[in-house]
Amino acid sequence: MPYCGFNFLLYVVTILCMNLLCAESFHMNKCVETDLQALLKFKNALILGRNDLTSWKGEECCKWEGISCDNFTHHVIGLNLGPINYTKALRGKLDSSICELQHLIFLELSYHYLEGKIPHCMGSLGQLKELKLSGNKFVSVIPSSLRNLSSLQTLDISYNYFMFSNDLEWLSHLSNLRYLDLSYVNLTLAVDWLSSISKIHSLSELHLYGCGLHQVTPKSIPHLNTSIFLKSLNLGGNSLNSSILPWVINVGKVLTNLDLSFNSLQQIIPYDFASMAFLQYLDLSDNELHGNIPKSFRSMCQLKELRMHSNKLSGKLNDNIQQLCSAKNGLGRLDLSDNPFERGSLPDVSYFSSLDTLSLRNTNVVGILPKSYVHLSFLTNLDLSHNHLNGVDIFDGEFLSTMTTLDLSFNQLSGSMPLLEITKLASLELLDLSHNQLSGPFPHTMGELSSLSELLLTSNKLNDVINEVHLSNLSELTILDVNQNSLSFKLSSDWVAPFKLETLYASSCTLGPKFPSWLKHQGELMILDISNCGISDSFPKWFWNLSSSLQYLNVSHNQLNGPLPKSFTSMKVKFENVWDFSFNNLNGSLPPFPELYALFLSSNMFTESLSSFCTSLSMVLTYLDLSSNLLEGQLSNCWKKFEMLQVLNLAKNKLSGKIPSSIGSLRHIESIHLNNNNFSGEIPPLTLCSSLALIDLGDNNLQGILPMWIGSHLHQLIVLRLRANKFQGNIPTSMCNLSFLQVLDLSENNIIGEIP
Fold first, then answer.
1. pLDDT for position 396
2. What is the pTM of this model?
3. Alpha carbon 360 to chain centroid distance?
4. pLDDT at residue 613, as a whole number
């Protein structure tokens, strides 16, 4: 009986627990009412993006997107809405209601468009451990109330370009802080920044890139607390001089990552760098370091990546690299590019058995690529551009089977042998041999590089016929650049390429006389340059139905004929697009164009009036060239909307009437070409066009006196050409204020009086 009683009691307890668990589960997603209301206030303060928070409805806020709750108290402890796709980015202010979430432990709102100030009340979130607000539009000073976040371990306010802090003393109160990133926050007035940082004993990772940090006083360093030991330090982009190095070496006993790039380090590389025995990543690039790499670097056995490009390192390149040689050295990436080493042969780096990326561009290397490089079995990226290489030795495909990137551009490679040898590298994904002196045929073996995605051969002397055999196996090809060669594409009209190009540069090659029909299937093209390609045909209808966004289109210097389509509405374009149709035989009226950054239509045979064309142009237009056509009639007074316009060229047409006054509203205009037309009347006031450097109104029928405002407002003017008009009167003395003027042509007018 006692046993039965015990079973009954156990049964009752089990039922009660199950009921409690069910009740708990039922209320699991229903957060505390005050937290729910705070989240709704946060959402309602947003201008854009709140409609993307589709799950933020009802009372079960613990199930909402980006929200996490405590399983027992149901308080919101986490808000994670970033980083996300920019199309769903939030815009508006960070409402102070966020401070009502008093149990927050994690707050992530990075990479949105949140504006205004960071609420001062955020200092009251005493349980907060991670605060990430990077990549927003916050302004004003970082609230010093953040000093109260004693539990904070991670603070990231980087990439808020309009934020600043005049004093970092508040940071010294964050005793648990391990990760700090204030990159691109203005700290130019925080004189004692180093003293404050040195007081954060728990700090392990520090990023202060591009903060305008104040220079360190060498005498102050011995008095700083050096009990902190950082694992990762980024002080790049601050113009710091070498006075910072003793502090870096003191706190770097366990450093694994160090970035001091884009500073003003000027002395010889300190011998003491080798004391940072755990260093794996070291970036000293873009400084003014000189001399040789110290021998002490041989003891840095943990180093995996070393960047020292764009300095003033001297001596022999081979001697400098030998300072890095060690049997235990697992160096994987080495960049010594853009240093003025002594002219010499390519060094032997085969003892770096783990090397996968090597950049020695612009280091005065001469001669040929030696056979020793075939022993670099892990080498995948090799950049030897901008040197004096004049040959390539025999490559061994077995040893270099992992090579994926090879850049030998801007050298003196000649003949056909280098290209033939390089095509043995079966794993190549990027090959850049541009700006050399390669000549002869285009090897058929190029078609065997089935992994090749980028092929750059611009500015050589290759001369050959390209057919399907050369391209049939290049299924991964996305970028093809053969500009400035003598290659002739002879491809069947029904040939379908195995690749989908995003970029094609083929200027000065032969693709004509018919329009290349194989482009019909290149629906992902964003950049297309087939200028000067011997095409004497009209545009096929399918060309305007390409599904890609032609951000750059250049078909100039051909013999394209016929009209342009009446509408470009099927084209998916963006405002930064550049289209160039100049120097062809295109005719008919000008159609409405989509939003373009630059439009070049010069030297064609377009006719009719520009009255409706002006109103159809994009407001973001920056360059417009319609010169040397057959356009006639008056210009509409619609130019006020083109706030971004910098160059306007309507020269050598048959335009007439007065120059519209709205041209005087172009505040960013730098160059106006209206010469060789039939404009009449006076020059409209251009007093707001303070950036004007060139005005050419010559060979028209303009009249009146020379305006005084030319000399009093256009102080940047370099060229003023008003020849062959009907101007009269004196030359105003205000023209003497044009201190930058180099060309002044007032000939063939009715000007009288003395020259000022």
1. 52
2. 0.81
3. 23
4. 75
| 4 and 20 in a common domain | yes
Q: 573-623, pLDDT tens digit by residue? A: 555 689 999 999 999 988 888 778 899 999 999 998 887 777 777 778 899
Indicate if 5 and 75 belong to the same structural domain. no
292 vs 279: CA distance, rounded Å: 20
Tokens of 55: 């799950």
Residue bearing tokens 């056909």: 416
CA atoms within 13 A on the CB side of 551: 10
Tell me which H or E stretch contains 633: strand 632-634
In a domain, 208, yes or no: no
Q: Which tokens hold the place of 144?
A: 């010093």
pLDDT tens digits, 64-83: 999 999 999 999 999 998 76
Residue 655 and residue 730 in one domain: yes
Return the pLDDT at 363.
Answer: 94
Pair 54, 12 in one domain: no
DSSP H stretches of helix in 238-384: 245-251, 317-322
Alpha helices in 500-594 (DSSP H): none
Residue 21 sits in the same domain as residue 40: no
In angstroms, the CA 573 to CA 581 distance is 16
Kindly calculate the radius of gyration of the chain based on its CA atoms and give it in whole angstroms. 34
What's the first-to-final CA gap in the chain, in angstroms?
127
Q: Which residues of the chain have pLDDT under 50?
A: 1, 3, 12-27, 394, 397
**Closest listed residue to residue 59, CA positions, set 23, 33, 79, 38:** 33
Element (H, E) at 341: none
User: What Cα–Cα distance (Å) separates residue 397 from each residue in 78, 353, 689?
Assistant: 53, 17, 62
Q: What is the pLDDT of residue 24?
A: 45
Q: Token pair of 554, please?
A: 């250049």
- Could you tell me if 630 and 656 lie in one domain? yes
Phi then psi for residue 349, to 5 deg, are -120, 20
Task: Spell 539-566 as b/e; 16+ CB within 10 A means b.
Answer: beeebeebebebbbbbbbbbebbeebee
With contact defined as beta carbons under 8 Å apart, do 519 and 545 qualify?
no
Residue 747 shares a structural domain with residue 619: yes
Amino acid at 443: P
